[in-house]
């Protein structure tokens, strides 16, 4: 079977992984929904995944981003992020990311969706083995400690000349 590239999901394979970053008062939860069992298709097809974040800590988080990168262990195929039309978007120098803006403590973001597709590396390549796709999610943010800080004062003695 010659493959033009594509991927489809098994009906009962929708999965949610939750990750937390905890450091003292900073806590960011990432919810990743994705199809955990897929199949390479002869014709083009792409499938969706979703990302949400929640500030479960006590500190205001600014400029929350989640970078998304896909890795595969196949010699004959490449897995790519694509847009809702199936056009590949991860071929540039910068890793694609979602920007969730600022999150106050206890606030959840809206859901953001991404799509991915599989393309053969070589013309007329036929796959013959099961492979893995790794979804790498890397959050970045700035913790705003100013909103939780208390004023303080230092004193120096100044002697009369």
Describe it for me?
With 161 residues, the protein is mainly beta. The chain has a single domain (7-127, 134-143), classed as Immunoglobulin-like. It has no helices and ten strands. It has strands at 7-9, 14-23, 26-35, 38-40, 47-55, 60-72, 77-82, 97-103, 112-120, 133-144. A five-stranded antiparallel beta sheet has the order 2-3-5-9-7, with no helix packed on it. The protein has a three-stranded antiparallel beta sheet with strand order 8-6-10, with no helix packed on it. Strand 2 and strand 3 (26-35) form a beta hairpin.
The dominant shape is elongated
Arrangement of strands in the largest sheet:
2-3-5-9-7
Mean pLDDT: 80
CATH level-1 class:
Mainly Beta
* Estimated helix fraction: under 10%
CATH architecture: Sandwich
* Through-space gap between termini: 94 Å
Key phrases:
161 residues, Immunoglobulin-like, elongated, mainly beta
């Amino acid at each position: 079977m010659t493959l033009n590239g594509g991927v489809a999901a098994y009906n009962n394979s929708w999965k949610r992984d939750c990750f937390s970053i905890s450091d003292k008062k900073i806590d960011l939860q990432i919810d990743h929904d994705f199809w955990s069992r897929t199949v390479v298709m002869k014709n083009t097809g792409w499938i969706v995944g979703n990302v949400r974040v929640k500030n479960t800590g006590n500190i205001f988080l600014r400029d929350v981003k989640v970078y998304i990168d896909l890795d595969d262990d196949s010699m004959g195929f490449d897995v790519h992020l694509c847009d809702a039309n199936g056009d590949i978007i991860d071929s540039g120098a910068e890793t694609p990311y979602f920007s969730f803006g600022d999150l106050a403590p206890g606030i959840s973001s809206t859901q953001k969706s991404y799509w991915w597709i599989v393309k053969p590396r070589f013309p007329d390549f036929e796959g013959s083995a099961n492979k893995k796709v790794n979804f790498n999610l890397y959050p970045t943010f700035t913790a705003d400690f100013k909103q939780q800080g208390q004023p303080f004062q230092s004193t120096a003695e100044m002697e009369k000349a």
